[in-house]
């Protein structure tokens, strides 16, 4: 048996040391070489080491006839090792990239199954890392993309770990052969129409022939770039700290930044900070699409520009940047009277409103601003609602969805705006919760 194969268990254990106190280790088990070796290694280590509970999960994509037999194979392997297996069948959405669609479907299941303090283990190795670097380089990726696959990242409520990134495929093959393991050979892995397969079968062998250490060197470059990305992240956090000031509309519950500190940075630092801030909110734009940020940033001071991204919109209003997604992008519709003002009223695509204190005499209704509304203030007489909203610097995207309380044609209150939200003498106020309590933002 190869010394490298003998050393593999101790290397794996060392790579997983900081997660030994996790509640559960679940192996993403495709049945291929990588995950088969990972599963066997962990099941074997569990005999002599105190490890978290082990289980495996197999995703059946249903994309090819041969795959119908794979759940049975995976079940047999897990039964022999005494590891529980969960088989999940998914529907892959058709689209331009079948690879990406399959990955999205797979990781949706992984996210749902990975609970708090759980670890999901995947079998990507050093050769995969080199392919990833080359693939992303050819697509024009930046530092973050070229840093390759991270050893760990959040998934669901837990953490995804890739403990074999310092192991070559050749080492995995030697281990599998030494332990007489059998694994699935996915026929689609030979289809060179897929970009990764083309790189694996056509490009990487030619590179290795000329530069035998090509994959090791590429993996090392990815590690250097991860360090560089770490420094860029630290810089972004410093810049965002300057822009993350408190404001009068915290109750909106929206991600928001003050524009001025960002606009004073160089263009490269602006993009770096924005990438860091947007990453958990949306798929990031490519280089050409960043012109939308320039347009938003340099628009006239009285404008309310919008930058539309893959999963939402970035608005500029009242000197701030606001991230809008989900119901915030839908036009709210309201109809009918507020029949029971003593109870909260749910607003389609706009949260809910409620009255505190003794409700004014009715009949009452909730409506949205149409233009031309006038409100009577005890100390100021009649005032245009538009001017009142301007005085309070209400963001433009909020104005059309602020709930207004009417009695007949009389505007009684504007939700959540101090001085406009109720009657101080009678002690009632109109409160708006922009999103339902069980409805998170993207």
UniProtKB/TrEMBL annotation:
Cited InterPro entries: Lysidine-tRNA-synth_C (IPR012796), Rossmann-like_a/b/a_fold (IPR014729), TilS/TtcA_N (IPR011063), tRNA_Ile_lys_synt (IPR012094), tRNA_Ile_lys_synt_N (IPR012795), tRNA_Ile_lys_synt_subst-bd (IPR015262)
What is the superkingdom listed in this entry's lineage? Bacteria
Its UniProt domain note says: The N-terminal region contains the highly conserved SGGXDS motif, predicted to be a P-loop motif involved in ATP binding.
EC numbers for this chain = 6.3.4.19
Enzyme class label: ligase
Q: Which HAMAP family match?
A: tRNA_Ile_lys_synt (MF_01161)
Chain sites annotated for binding ATP: 30-35
Protein name (database record): tRNA(Ile)-lysidine synthase
Entry GO MF terms: tRNA(Ile)-lysidine synthase activity
Q: Which reaction does it catalyse?
A: cytidine(34) in tRNA(Ile2) + L-lysine + ATP = lysidine(34) in tRNA(Ile2) + AMP + diphosphate + H(+)
Localization (cell): Cytoplasm
Family (UniProt) = Belongs to the tRNA(Ile)-lysidine synthase family.
Q: Please name the gene that encodes this protein.
A: tilS
């Amino acid at each position: 048996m190869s010394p490298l194969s003998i050393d593999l268990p101790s290397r794996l254990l060392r790579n997983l040391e900081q997660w030994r106190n996790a509640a559960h280790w679940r192996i993403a088990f495709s049945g291929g070489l990588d995950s088969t070796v990972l599963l066997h290694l962990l099941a074997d280590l569990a005999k002599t080491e105190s490890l978290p509970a082990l289980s495996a999960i197999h995703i059946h994509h249903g994309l090819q006839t041969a795959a119908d037999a794979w759940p049975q194979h995976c079940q047999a392997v897990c039964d022999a090792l005494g590891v529980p297996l969960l088989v999940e069948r998914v529907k892959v959405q058709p689209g331009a990239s079948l690879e990406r669609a399959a990955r999205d479907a797979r990781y949706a299941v992984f996210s749902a199954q990975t609970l708090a303090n759980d670890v999901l283990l995947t079998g990507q190795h050093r050769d995969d890392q080199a392919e990833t670097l080359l693939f992303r380089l050819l697509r024009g990726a930046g530092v973050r993309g070229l840093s390759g696959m991270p050893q760990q990242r959040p998934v669901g409520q837990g953490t995804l770990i890739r403990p074999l990134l310092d192991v070559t495929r050749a080492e995995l093959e030697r281990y599998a052969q030494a332990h007489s393991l059998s694994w699935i050979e996915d026929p689609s892995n030979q289809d060179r129409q897929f970009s990764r397969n083309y790189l694996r079968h056509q490009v990487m062998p030619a590179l290795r022939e000329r530069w035998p250490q090509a994959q090791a060197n590429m993996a090392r470059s990815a590690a250097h770039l991860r360090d560089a990305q770490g420094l860029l992240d630290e810089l972004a956090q410093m810049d965002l700290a300057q822009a993350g000031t408190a404001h009068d509309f915290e109750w909106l519950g929206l991600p928001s930044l003050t524009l001025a500190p960002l606009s004073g940075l160089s263009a490269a630092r602006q993009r770096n900070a924005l990438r860091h801030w947007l990453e958990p909110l949306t798929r990031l734009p490519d280089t050409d699409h960043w012109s939308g940020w320039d347009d938003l940033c340099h628009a006239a001071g009285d404008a309310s520009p919008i930058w539309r991204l893959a999963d939402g919109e970035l608005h500029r209003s009242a000197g701030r940047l606001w991230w809008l997604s989900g119901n915030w992008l839908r036009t709210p519709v309201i109809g009918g009277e507020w029949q029971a003002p003593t109870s909260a009223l749910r607003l389609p695509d706009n949260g809910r409103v409620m009255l505190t204190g003794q409700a004014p005499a009715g009949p009452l209704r909730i409506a949205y601003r149409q233009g031309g509304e006038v409100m009577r203030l005890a100390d100021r007489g009649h005032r245009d609602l538009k001017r009142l909203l301007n005085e309070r610097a209400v963001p433009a995207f909020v104005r059309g969805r602020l709930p207004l309380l009417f009695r007949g044609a009389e505007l009684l209150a504007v939700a959540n705006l101090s001085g406009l939200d109720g009657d101080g003498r009678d002690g009632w106020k109109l409160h708006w919760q922009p999103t339902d309590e069980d409805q998170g933002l993207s």
